[in-house]
Amino acid sequence: MYKRTKLGQKLPWNYLRYVLALLIWIIGFFPSTVSHIYTPFIFRPLSTVLRSISGIFGFSIGEWVYLGLIILLIFSIFKWIWLHYKRWRDRAFWTQQLVRWLNQFTGLFIVFELCWGLNYQKQNPAKDFNLQVPSNYTEKQMDSLSLSLIEELNKTREKISNFEAKNLHFQSISSKIGAEFKEISKNRPFLHYSPASIKIAHFPSWGDYLGYTAFYHPITGEAIIRGDLPVLTQAFTISHEMAHQLGYASEEEANFIAFVIGTESKDPIVHYSTQLQMFTYAQYAHLQFIVKRGDFTLYKEMVERNKKLLLPKVMEDRKFIRNFFLKKQDLQIKGTAEMYNQFLLWNKQAKGIESYEDVLLWALAYKTKKNP
């Protein structure tokens, strides 16, 4: 016989979890508390332990964890329907189910926030780098930045032989980035990264359907990268995910850490990967100003100008990268981009997916400081 349970008969933990969830939610409104207590004393030690464990294994544990959770979820849904479909008209049953689902959601919220999510609420790293980050940029600044990056791209590409570019592989690039973090942490201890847990995705095709190139796994502490990505993009992507592992949850902040790693690197491969990504952002931002005015003649002129200024080798690299993503874009499941955008908005990332490009503001501040 179906047993009814009054709300007042719930175990104390069911009330305690609500109090804990409320406390975590309130802490999220105090970025300084998150930055000075949660990230250094809870997240980073936990992340270090998780990376120590997952790093032992030579394969990506996180994808199997997600696969197992998806299978378990599907099984649980069918089991729930099978066991309870006869009670759908019982109001008391639905009341209890709603309470159970609320308890489960609250538990997931607590685990997610303590393992990772609170990092979205912490202070940005402007103070750590002594930067004054502007709130917006101008068309002129983006044009100037694009031209500057074109010059840098050409100089750096000349240092990379075609043989070296064609024989790069994931492990060598991952090692390069690990060395870069070790070097930069000498002057910036807050970027100390150890141990490493960088994994190649077992199921890169998932990224085609869900629209990702890499992701941080909060349960295992792994940074999981698609190994089929164009090799010249991997250095920036790996740096971005390692920044997530250090608690830089915001996409613009993770991009900025990757930008600093690449900009200050003496390795042409790491440097070039960063310049490629930043030029893509800067050129797009510049062209968007022109599009908004409806001046498509100028738009074409700017595109052609940039093509003529870039070395043929750089153009070939950009074409290869662009073609890779063009082949994948129609495979993405409709709605997944909006779901991720909503996830970022829920976590107080005001611009959602567009926040990736806000790294340009940080780049301007960084370059201003370097060349006042």
Question: Which descriptors would you attach to this protein?
Answer:
single chain; 372 residues; 15 helices; 3% strand; globular
Number of strands: 3
Secondary structure tally, helices: 15
Strand content: under 5%
Largest sheet: 3 strands, mixed
* Intertermini distance: 77 Å
Assembly of the depicted chains:
single chain
Q: Please give the radius of gyration in angstroms.
A: 23 Å
Count of the separate structural domains: 2
Average pLDDT taken over every residue: 89
Shape estimate? globular
Read across the widest sheet, the strand sequence of neighbours is 1-3-2
List low-confidence stretches. 1-9
Approximate helicity band:
55-70%
Structural class: mainly alpha
How are helices and strands ordered from N to C? HHHHHHHEHEEHHHHHHH
Explained architecture:
- It contains 15 helices and 3 strands.
- The protein is mainly α.
- It folds into 2 domains: 115 residues, no CATH class; 232 residues, no CATH class.
- The chain has a 3-stranded mixed sheet with strand order 1-3-2, sandwiched between helices.
- A hairpin with a 4-residue loop joins β2 and β3.
- It is globular, with a radius of gyration of 23 Å.
